[in-house]
Design goal:
By secondary structure, the chain is mainly beta. It is 0% helix and 56% strand. It has one domain (13-117). The protein is built from no helices and eleven strands. Strands 1, 2, 3, 4, 5, 6, 7, 8, 9, 10 and 11 form an eleven-stranded mixed β-sheet that branches.
Length: 132
């Protein structure tokens, strides 16, 4: 875990208190539960539960995630349940995002553009846990 109070710059994560950081060049496979923010600059594959998930540019999260807040500038693939979702990265094919609110940031200068594959977004009601 890292304890940092740095200011974010474009492409970085938001300012942090305590955080679990998966750095660039690091890959994690398995199940992870954290009581603090998870910042992904590398790659996570598996199941994740955290109050806040921040996926930086170049970061990848693939699998299932239950989060309070999702802020992704990287790549998402799988199934995501969040209270709030802010996207400005890539959402892969066959990805499901369930959220009470969704913010999509599109910038046309080729720095940050959201790309949706064949995905399903469910916005508005409280996320309902998947059956099974």
């Amino acid at each position: 875990m890292a304890d940092t109070k740095q200011m974010a710059t474009e492409g970085d994560s938001p300012p942090l208190g305590k955080a679990t950081v998966i750095e660039e060049g690091t890959a994690f496979k398995g199940s992870m539960t954290s009581t603090c923010m998870v910042v992904v600059r590398g790659r996570i594959e598996g199941e994740l539960s955290t109050p806040t998930l921040s996926v930086a540019v170049g970061g990848v999260v693939q699998g299932r995630a239950r989060v309070g807040a999702l802020d992704s500038q990287g790549q998402l693939a799988g199934e995501f349940d969040a209270d709030t979702a802010r996207l400005s990265g890539t959402v892969s094919d066959d990805t499901v995002i369930r959220a009470k609110s969704l913010e999509v940031k599109l910038i046309s200068d080729d720095k940050r553009v959201v790309t949706f594959g064949e995905s399903r977004l469910e916005i508005g009601d409280a996320p309902v846990p998947p059956k099974g």
